[in-house]
From TrEMBL:
GO cellular component terms, A-Z: cytosol
Gene3D superfamilies hit by this protein: DNAb Helicase, Chain A
Signal peptide span: none
InterPro entries: DNA_heli_DnaB-like_N_sf (IPR036185), DNA_helicase_DnaB-like_N (IPR007693), DNA_helicase_N/primase_C (IPR016136)
Protein name per UniProt: Replicative DNA helicase
Domain DNA helicase DnaB-like N-terminal: 23-121, 215-279
Molecular functions (GO terms): ATP binding; DNA binding; DNA helicase activity
Pfam family, one: DnaB
Keywords: ATP-binding, DNA replication, DNA-binding, Helicase, Hydrolase, Nucleotide-binding
Transmembrane segments: none
Organism of provenance: Streptomyces bathyalis
Source organism, top-level taxon: Bacteria
Amino acid sequence: MPHTPETDDEDLNLEPPPEPPVHYAEQALLGALLLEPEQLAQTEGLLPEHFRSPAHRAVYAAMRTLTPPEREVHRTEPVWINAVLTRAVEEAPGVSAAYLHTCIGACPRPQHATSYARMIRSDHARRTLREHAIRLEQAATNTTLADPESAALRQADALARFVDELTRQTASHPGSLPRTPLPPDPPRDRTEDALEEERLFLATATDRADGVKELPLRLEDFALPLHGHLYQCLSALTRRGEDIDPIAVLWEAQHRRLLTSGVGPDDVLTLLSQPAGSPEHWAEQILRRALLYGARRAATRIRAFAEDTANSPHQLITGARRALADLTAQHTRCWHRAPPGPNTTAEPAHSPTVKPRQHELTALHASRGNRR
């Protein structure tokens, strides 16, 4: 459909997006400090980088480098506003005397400067928490890293340190949960490599079940729920001290109603019939993928909390701590024997001599491909 001048005018929205509330809090604070320079002493904990607007940041930074004039001089001469303007335009050339007067007009009560400063710090904390969550998500999904687990854990530690610092800076308040509904969990890694590792683990653990009891795996660690349920079958047989082989696992799966129209006995027996390597090796791979998934889920939740401006700092702290607690518990469970250090990776709990040989894996892939 050709555009007419009328439709062009209707479709083209030239109105800028509305400024968020923190913009007006920043204007009000700067107006208060321009009107009453002595209020600067009440904002010592506020730093220029806490401001969202670069222009406001430059004006506030200029104020912090200047000595406020005597009250009588300030009342009769514009020395303060002129000095602030001269210093601010060095960093933000767009700042003008007219805009400083706009900030003065935007300040309802100069004596409320401390409250305006608290609003600015609160919004800065929310934005910073969101940035930490984004970095955690990026670390957990970066497939180019040689050691993505350690990278994700380092980012999680940095996020936790920020939350601790925010807690120290925030007045004591009873913890309350964020008002934000939990976002959907991110999709699991169900690539063929991930699923093949789980299948090989189940087959090898069935063939060598003596060490299954010692593995810290759980249902939620598996990318495919069926694989997690089959692992539960193996664990139950082990706990009861029963004989374990593919038929025994199939029988247990039947009792747990795992056999459906899409998963028949032949499917289970085929899955369990080709072991390779050691159960510990494949369990290590599953745990690593589960840890990265846990980091992604924590990052997704914390980011959702931080992007909801209705949440107070106390709610952000509580929500972030809960999300990180789940990740910490998973890390502790996965590496309860030998947690990796800041620059090291936990060594797989298996002997190199029992790793599957490449020709074995190639044959397994080929045989599975033929069955498909």
